[in-house]
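Q&A log
Question type: sequence-to-structure
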Amino acid sequence: MGIVRYSIYKTLKILKRLFLFEITTSGLSHHVMRVSKIFEDVYEEILQDVQTGCTLFADETGWRIKGNLWWLWVFGTEHSAYFSIDKSRGSDVVLRILGEIFPGVMVVDGWGAYTSIISDQQSCMAHLLRKIRKFYAKFPELKDIARFYVKFRRIIRDGERLQGFRKEYGEEKFLRRFARLETRLEELLRWPNPDNILQSIIDKVRRQQPRILTFVRHPGVPCHNNFAEYLIRIGVLKRKISGGSKSEEGAKAYAVLLSIFTTCKLRKIPFLRFIRESLKHYIRTGKPLLLKEFVEVETLKKAAKLL
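Response status: OK
Response body:
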């Protein structure tokens, strides 16, 4: 019920007030879980879309089930969002959802679990720059931190400009400038005689070095993970309302319905209408209407109206 930004108790009140329909909290939860099972084929459809995406954004955040810490994961593309709630925050989740190889570019927050698979990866530079700013806020007397930050940020911004001018420059000039950018980054990480604090910052950046300038080589790929953070915030709404899930089954149901809701939002598909039409299809055929099929049906309806 958090999908529509209401707690289950508020939903019960709305059902009673508007529709004179009374049901217990356990009864409503049972129906939500039952509906989520009907839509597992749609959930799988979204997963397949995510697995074959060109650019994939991923993020994870804490989630409570009966007060115990679990993790809400999201794997999203421009048109699809797949959520999963798991006990683990480790690489086993990434491997289970994406497999050992992802053919596109992954944009992630730098968490080590994502490096378990073979793929081109871009770490979130907004995260990394934020960490450096926090160091400087804590140690403002260490001016080398500020100097390092400015130089590092300039490399990222020059990378964004280079990405945008690739067609104008032509491939040969682009590759020359990209190599120069990589050299500047390497030279920055060889900062002479850093103090212990700056060295710890350099070590953090060094660990991400293979994933700092990936975005430059891939048109349209950002240097930040803002999109995944946007997606994960949609999922966190329920956490703010109810604190998490009461059971593993409830968490799975939420992940299924949240994936469908968010994917509908990204594709500008009316969520409630899709649910209604898909359930009608299930009653007739024993299978839910997939998102792709729903779009095809809606397109045919619009075409028929024009005749």
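Response note: The longest strand covers residues 55-65.
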